[in-house]
Specification:
The chain is an alpha+beta fold. The chain has one domain (about 5-155): Electron Transport, Fmn-binding Protein, Chain A (Pnp Oxidase, Chain A, Roll), CATH 2.30.110.10. Helix content is about 25%, strand content about 35%. The chain has four helices and nine strands. The chain has helices spanning about 10-25, 65-70, 105-120, 155-160; strands at about 5, 25-30, 40-45, 45-50, 55-60, 75-80, 90-100, 130-145, 150-155. Strands 1, 2, 3, 4, 5, 6, 7, 8 and 9 form a nine-stranded mixed beta sheet that branches. The relative contact order is 0.22.
């Protein structure tokens, strides 16, 4: 009989996942390279919408922007270990998502711009450049590793 290392998702796991999202200032973003379809990973600044969904501000000049336009499927690795200790002993969240670009001409853009810049004030330097867009990551699921022996599968509703 096979055993699984995945624990039943509980309120503690949901709370830890939300804490990791709330504390994140950046994340590793994984996309599929639009030309080769090979995995491509980069670091992005990360914030949350007023509703708590992950979001970022990215340039059209970046390869990952082109990749997300070609295929909106993405993954975000969230959670950084402290400077000392075994990095595998600390919590991290792998979020599966669909990227949604926010049109500049919509009220959502103005609302998200104001909210994002409140938590990322240095982004004011480039947020209004024509090549920059806000992207919201609509979660489709997640894998939470809360440290050794603490693995959970989460749904989008677990993160809401």
């Amino acid at each position: 009989m096979a055993t699984t290392p995945i624990r039943p998702t509980d309120d503690e796991a949901r709370a830890l996942a939300r804490e990791l999202l709330a504390a994140a200032r950046f994340a590793a973003l994984a996309v599929l390279h639009p030309d080769t379809r090979a995995p491509h990973v980069t670091r992005i600044a990360l914030g949350l919408t007023p509703e708590g969904q992950p979001m970022t501000l990215i340039s059209a000049l970046a390869l990952h922007t082109r990749a997300l336009h070609a295929d909106p499927a993405a993954s975000l690795l969230i959670g950084e270990p402290p400077p000392k200790g075994d990095p595998l002993a600390f919590a991290r969240l792998t979020l599966a998502a669909k990227a949604r670009f926010i049109d500049r001409a919509t009220p959502d853009h103005a609302r998200l711009r104001e909210h994002y810049l409140a938590s990322h004030p240095k982004s004011k330097l480039y947020a209004d450049f024509a090549d920059f867009s806000f992207v919201v990551f609509d979660a489709t699921g997640a894998a939470l590793n809360g440290g050794f022996g603490k693995a959970y599968d989460l749904t989008a509703s677990d993160l809401a």
